[in-house]
Amino acid sequence: MKKTIYLLATSLLIVLMACNNDDDQDNVEPDQGPSTVDLLGDATFPEGILTLSTDDILVGGFGDGSIQRIDSDENVSYFKNPGEDGLVIAVGMEEDVNRGRLWVANFNFDTGNGVPGSQMKVFDVNSGDLLATIPETFIPGVFFNEVAIDNDGNVYVSDTFNPQIWKAGNDLQGVEVFVENDLLSNPAPDQPFDLNGLAITPDNNYLIASVMDRLDAGDGRLVRISLTDSSVRDVQLSGTSAVSAFAGSDGMIFNDNQLIMVNVFSEAGAIITADFSTDFGSAALTIRDRFQDFYNRPTASAIRNGRLWTVNSQLDHIIDDNNGALGTDADLPFQVLHISLDQVFE
Description:
This protein is mainly β. It has three helices and 25 strands. The strands form six sheets. Strands 18-22-21-20-19 form a five-stranded mixed beta sheet. A four-stranded antiparallel beta sheet has the order 1-25-24-23. It has a four-stranded antiparallel beta sheet with strand order 2-3-4-5, with no helix packed on it. The chain is globular and about 45 Å long. 44% of the residues are buried. Mean pLDDT is 91; it is low at 1-31.
């Protein structure tokens, strides 16, 4: 018996020594490069993405009005089937953790006679039950896009068609304009779009909103809005190459005090970060383009377990980006890309 144990131990030691002396395996870390998760459906065109407090990830369908869930094992299922509960185009999403609610911006290109409009959908984040539709009928001429929620449960949503940010209370009673200001408008005469990205600063004092020009790199802006008095001012941007590439942010998310943004004109650099001054009045921009070739018209990011999850929306197949993709077939399956944050920031 002792001889058998000795021989087994000796064999194991030889194997371990061989592995340690193998140049191909020495000091090799586990693969932390880009990975993808395939989504359901052939008309999804994913746009928004959100990490829930449960660590599940939700992805909204711009093309089919679905919301898909990616669990911790990367299994994909429908949180909301396409078109369920009146979802038409699921855009931005945010979780009210204290009240267990999911707020979703629901957009419709045609609410009647070709008029687009928006409303908010509120779901129980655990059961998926519809709690409220605010308002019941679509608000005409409004494009609700990105959603942010403050510490008191007040909900803010950017309006892509107008220089406005809307607000809803946690009482689920209605939605109204929180602020309207010329600084929230895109001055380009050939661009019908104004606001897109929206996030609340970690100190819960300000909204950071992005004015976009999705066809022209360098024309994007960040704006700071006070949650106390709704005053508005431009954020002074620095970082020459990044500023000249920045067309405004689509989805944006704070990681501690750094804002991670998905550049609207992604060809100039899909991921751009902003490091702010203490009063959030100025920010230094940096392009994070190490994995640029893996993105396919990204629109929003979320963070889970130290990795940056970004949707490859392929929206340029259904919304004209002047790149020749409009009307052509998308690459299936639609995917979410995730990459180690450490590698994104190297």
